[in-house]
């Protein structure tokens, strides 16, 4: 769709008026000629007599001036009309096209959708509406600045435009949301287009000498199955997009009615979370960590809990909603302060308190300062605090910034562990450049350990490699004696899991400690 194809209502009105003006002038000229013929007034004769009577007026020159003025007037009017046209085009461009991506904006995209649906109804073809929302776009703005953020939006829009067929419409709804409209005269064409759109994510973007992989969530709704009006289809594709964001499938999700129910349940949970945040309706549990060398409890991992209407909300779900709704920093800080406070009642001087930190929280510019403040608030010894970061916290293009943060934490005496190691994307090569203390091997590896000799070999190689890089190794999710024995054999330093101890409340722990 090009700018020149667009006509605003005002432009149409002006064109219509110009046509009528031309018509009126012709009518008036014809009328005057008719009157002069009827009344036998010979205009040229009259003009001739007039000029003879006023010969001293230099009539030739006057006529010439009048002629030049007429020609000048025509030229001037022509130029102004051209200016007006350019102005109208610019105004309509701004009103209908997004200035960053040069794609149709929200108003125009929705107009296109309405027109496409009219045609689809008349010519009986199907149509698809794809709603796309970039993931973590705010982080790009925060990290690289708004100019680079705009550049990324522009590059993304460009890629999107190249991934669709000629005649398909790609628009930017605003912020980090895009809309793709496809006419489906041939249903077989849909799958390749969807695959091309999906694969946009595989190619990195170059920003500030960094290659940035950028993901999006997308949902698709099809006319007439999922809705017959522009509003319904937009809503359905938005819900499907939201579903894709929450489930993180990385696919373009097709709308189903079931998604609406899930969405309402999720909305409910989000508003419950806001209330819970206000009333601080959370509590912490602590799971012991065992040293395999001396069979002593060397620390506890703090795990947040949320009980809602008598039922426990799964912690992974709580963390994800908190991340999606932007409350993760608040919740993370609450958990940190609560854990530090609770630890005063049960943690011994030779034990450590491990606190989980999400990537988003870790990436905050004042993260190290926040931790320092919390420690000094409780006068908690830094060497007794372990911060558990996930691998994803390190998989970022701001690696220097990450290194600085980890180094600053280490200089304060705080220990840093990598949680759920092995299931993320980071590699030992990258980790060896960071002053990390401990790798916590994900529980899927611990569980696989007993399954086959091959799994055992893979895990023991991983452990050996990490040991050579001077990392302590802790296995997560130990559920049986068999697993614990194998971990011993491999040379793992520490272990955590239900077999060693279930996560327990503060009251339970205090009672346990005082009975010893
Ligand atoms: P994580 O840090 O890897 O924590 C270990 C999870 O495994 C916990 O799940 C724990 O209850 C569970 N677990 C422990 N032993 C076993 C076992 O033997 N078998 C099995 N199947 N599971 C075991 P939980 O409490 O549901 O927490 C899930 C995740 O939520 C945590 O994984 C952590 O990433 C996050 N999380 C928990 N508490 C916090 C918190 O206070 N702040 C932040 N930012 N994240 C938290
Ligand atoms: Mg953890
Ligand atoms: Mg873990």
TrEMBL record:
Q: Which GO terms describe its molecular function?
A: cyclic-guanylate-specific phosphodiesterase activity; diguanylate cyclase activity
PROSITE patterns membership = EAL, GGDEF
Question: Gene3D superfamilies in the record, alphabetically?
Answer: 3.30.70.270, EAL domain
Q: What is this protein called?
A: Bifunctional diguanylate cyclase/phosphodiesterase
| E.C. numbers | 2.7.7.65, 3.1.4.52
Task: Indicate the transmembrane segments per the record.
Answer: 21-41
Locate the GGDEF domain: which residues?
Answer: 125-257
Q: In which domain of life is the source organism classified?
A: Bacteria
Q: Which organism is it from?
A: Vibrio rhizosphaerae
Alphabetically ordered keywords of this record:
Hydrolase, Membrane, Nucleotidyltransferase, Transferase, Transmembrane, Transmembrane helix
Annotated ranges, domain EAL: 266-516
A Pfam family annotated for this UniProt entry: EAL
């Amino acid at each position: 769709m090009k700018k020149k194809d667009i006509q605003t209502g005002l432009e149409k009105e002006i064109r219509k008026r110009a046509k009528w003006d031309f018509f009126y002038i012709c009518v008036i000229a014809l009328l005057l000629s008719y009157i002069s013929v009827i009344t036998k007034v010979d205009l040229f004769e009259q003009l001739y007599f007039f000029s003879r009577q006023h010969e001293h007026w230099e009539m030739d020159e006057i006529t010439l001036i009048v002629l030049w003025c007429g020609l000048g007037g025509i030229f001037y009017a022509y130029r102004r009309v051209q200016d007006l046209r350019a102005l109208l085009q610019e105004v309509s461009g701004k009103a209908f096209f997004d200035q960053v991506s040069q794609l149709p904006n929200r108003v125009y995209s929705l107009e296109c959708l309405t027109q496409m649906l009219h045609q689809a109804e008349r010519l009986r073809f199907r149509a698809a509406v794809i709603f796309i929302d970039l993931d973590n776009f705010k982080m790009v703005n925060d990290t690289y600045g708004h100019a680079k953020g705009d550049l990324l939006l522009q590059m993304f829009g460009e890629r999107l435009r190249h991934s669709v067929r000629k005649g398909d419409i790609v628009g930017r709804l605003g912020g980090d949301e895009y809309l793709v409209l496809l006419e489906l005269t041939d249903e077989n064409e849909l799958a390749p287009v969807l695959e091309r759109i999906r694969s946009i994510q595989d190619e990195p973007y170059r920003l500030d000498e960094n290659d940035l992989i950028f993901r999006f969530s997308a949902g698709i709704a099809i006319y007439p199955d999922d809705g017959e009006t522009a509003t319904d289809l937009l809503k359905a594709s938005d819900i499907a997009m939201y579903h894709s964001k929450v489930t993180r499938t990385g696919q373009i999700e097709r709308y189903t009615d079931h998604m609406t129910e899930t969405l309402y349940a999720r909305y409910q949970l989000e508003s419950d979370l806001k209330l819970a945040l206000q009333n601080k309706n959370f509590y912490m549990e602590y799971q012991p960590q065992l040293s395999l060398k001396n069979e002593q409890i060397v620390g506890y991992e703090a795990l947040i809990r949320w009980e809602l209407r008598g039922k426990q909300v799964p912690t992974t779900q709580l963390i994800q909603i908190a991340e999606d709704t932007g409350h993760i920093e608040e919740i993370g800080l609450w958990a940190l302060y609560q854990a530090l406070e609770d630890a005063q009642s049960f943690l011994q001087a030779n034990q450590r308190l491990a606190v989980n930190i999400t990537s988003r929280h870790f990436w905050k510019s004042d993260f190290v300062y926040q931790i320092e403040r919390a420690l000094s608030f409780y006068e908690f010894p830094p060497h007794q605090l372990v911060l558990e970061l996930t691998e994803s916290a390190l998989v970022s293009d701001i690696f220097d910034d990450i290194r600085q943060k980890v180094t600053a934490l280490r200089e304060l005496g705080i220990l840093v562990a990598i949680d759920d190691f092995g299931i993320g994307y980071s590699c030992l090569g990258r980790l060896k450049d960071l002053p990390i203390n401990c790798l916590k091997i994900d529980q899927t590896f611990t569980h696989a350990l007993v399954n086959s000799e091959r799994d055992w070999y893979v895990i023991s190689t991983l452990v050996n490699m990490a040991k050579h890089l001077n990392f302590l190794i802790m296995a997560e999710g130990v559920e049986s004696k068999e697993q614990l024995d194998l971990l011993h054999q491999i040379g793992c330093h520490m272990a955590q899991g239900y077999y060693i101890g279930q996560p327990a409340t503060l009251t339970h722990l205090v009672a346990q400690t005082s009975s010893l």
